[in-house]
Amino acid sequence: MKAETRTVKGIFHGERRFEVPVYQRPYVWNRERQWEALWHDIEATAIRLAEARIAGHGKGIDAAVADKLAAPHFLGALVIEDQPVMTGAVDTRLVVDGQQRLTTLQLLLRGVLDALDAVNAPKPLRAQVRKAIRNDEEVVGEDELLKLAPRHAERQQFAAAMDPVIPAPTASRFADARAYFRDDAAEFLADADVPADPYFDGDAVAARASLLVATLLGLVKLVVIDLEGVDDAQVIFEALNARNTPLSATDLVKNLLFMRAQAQQHDPQVLYDTLWKRFDDESDWWLELVGVGHAQRARQDWLLGDWLIAQRGMTINVGRLYGEFRTWLDTSGVEPFEALSTLNQYADAYEVLNGRREGASLPEQQAFLRIEQLNITVATPVILWLLVQPAARLEPDERERAILAIESFVMRRMAVKWQTRAYGPMFVEVLKAAQAAETNPGQAVVDALRAQPHGYSWPSDADIVTAFEEGRYYGNGGINRERLRMVLGAIDRRLQQQALKSEPSIVDYDGLQIEHVIPQNWRTHWPVTVQEPGERLIAEQERDRHVNRIGNLTLATKHLNPSMSNDPWAEKRAELQKHSVLQLNAALVAEPEWDEQRVRARGAWLAGHFGSIWRGPDDAIWEGATPIPKGVGDHGPA
Fold first, then answer.
1. Percentage of the chain with pLDDT > 90?
2. Does an H or E element contain 490, and which?
């Protein structure tokens, strides 16, 4: 490795070409975060140069000596790697790191050249800038005229932005950058407050042009690291980016895999087009942040973590996702091409689960959606692994059975409010059981869930009934409202499906509110009728215990809920009969009275329907011989 400080002139003058590998991320620098700061630094450097020349001229010092007194602006590092070319061809370097600043410099120079042309600056000044962005057309071919060749997907836009014909700023991010720097340069050239260069013999505008060109070509410097054959480009890339604009774990993994694949003579363009292009074409989706709080990460990083867990068969430290991946790649013996291929398969499966492509049943997609809504992300590697198995090893019906078993396991544990702390290691063990299965890995998933020890067992129907009859489900000690809506909405949807004589209804359950039948402020509007003080106290305590049980909860629209919130049962019942289309409420209003006994009974009734949607561990469908009944997995909208 050779590292040296070079000026912009030293980097760009002469016939040469810098190529950005196809696998690097797109050009992302923008006005607010980078362009403005860069231009302000250049202006400040130009002023320093002018002041140094004024001071030098006053002391009778030669201009070249005076320029040494001006502090340069260091833009950062550029890592390049020599590329083999035919003898006599244009010297070509691969840009390992620094493509954002290199691209920005080219656009800046193009914008400055526009401003110089507009004021008819001296031809030698314009020629110096032009030589920094274009090779000599009499020496090179037309496709090698530009000094920089960005990623293949961006080359057409970049070439248009660098064309002598000025493009509209809205044409691309590249064109916008050129326009921004052109306007800034024009303002600089017209600024009478810029100190005059005493060494320049010409008008004020030409003097400022000379000052700007000298600054750009001679005082903007980069540390250029020129790699030799034995250097590990990825190690240098990681070190330089450790404290720079953050790269995602997926960015680092992509660079590592493509660098190693290229070293093994794989064509990076072919690999990119077949195994990675999707992540850039659909970058808005793959880069979308998923999760909450400190666990929020880009969707592509979630995919990478889930895939790596499936490859390693062990939990990983998500804070060191790239380090975990590199350790695995260095020790597993898996070739980069194989890793890219399997990661691509998992990306297919991830899109299938999210409904972006076909390949999963509606119950499977619904199950995955619910598991994600519960934030049980540690189950995703198991589900993805099941989806990528060939049909010869895992039939679709058995795969669906396994995924519905996972959904039932987590839904039932959520419903009885059992802890989730060790789900990560537990689901890794389930995954390993499936991977080790000689036949039917789907059944191995079911069996592993059924075999979980006390504390992580799969709740039985009796567990659900007890929880629904006696547990608190609203407020402190309950479950959050989104999960309550999920449970009550699923039960109503099942009732809708069973109500064959009723017109089908499409209900947006997410838009409904949780309604207490006996209101939370029951003492004013629903007082107990017991008069004896001791018995009255017991009755009030009993009512307090029942108010937030699931048997006392239902769903109502945001308009209906407040209008009847504290009404006595007769009036509330009439309002529900008149306005609600929910089968959940049709069963409720069949009750002529409402009290604690009916709350408990309705809890048991809800538990029965819950158990029909999410079957318990003792149900015959998990044995593999019984077909999965329609309605299990409840494949309507969440």
1. 56
2. helix 481-498
Tokens for 479, please give them.
Answer: 């479950």
Pairing between β-strand 2-7 and β-strand 148-149 as defined by DSSP bridges: unpaired
Indicate the pairing of strand 553-556 with strand 220-227: unpaired
Rounded distance between C-alpha atoms, residue 10 and residue 579, angstroms = 78
Locate 50 and state its tokens: 């002018």
- Residue 41 CB neighbours (<10 A): 14
Distance of CA 278 to the CA centre of its chain: 14
Distance CA 256, CA 252 (A): 6
Q: What mean pLDDT value characterizes the chain? A: 88
Q: Answer yes or no: is pLDDT of 383 > 90.
A: yes
Q: CA-to-CA distance for 248 and 581, rounded, in angstroms?
A: 48
Cβ count near 332 (within 10 Å): 12
Tally of residues, the chain: 638
**Collapsed DSSP state (helix, strand, coil) of residue 482:** helix
What tokens were used for 169?
């700023």
Q: At what angle do helices 441-450 and 396-415 cross, to 10 degrees?
A: 20
Its pTM stands at 0.74
Phi-psi category of residue 285: left, alpha or beta, with phi > 0 → left and psi -120 to 50 → alpha: alpha
Q: Would you say 122 and 206 are in contact if contact means Cβ atoms under 8 Å apart?
A: yes
- Residues near 120 by beta carbon (within 8 Å), at least 6 away in sequence: none
Which residues are registered as beta bridge partners of 16? 91
When mean pLDDT is compared across 51-55, 193-197, 223-227, 290-294, the lowest value belongs to 290-294
User: Cα–Cα distance between 72 and 46 in angstroms, integer?
Assistant: 9
pLDDT at 500: 66
Question: Tens of pLDDT along 46-88?
Answer: 999 999 999 998 888 888 898 888 889 999 888 888 877 766 6
DSSP code of 76?
Answer: E
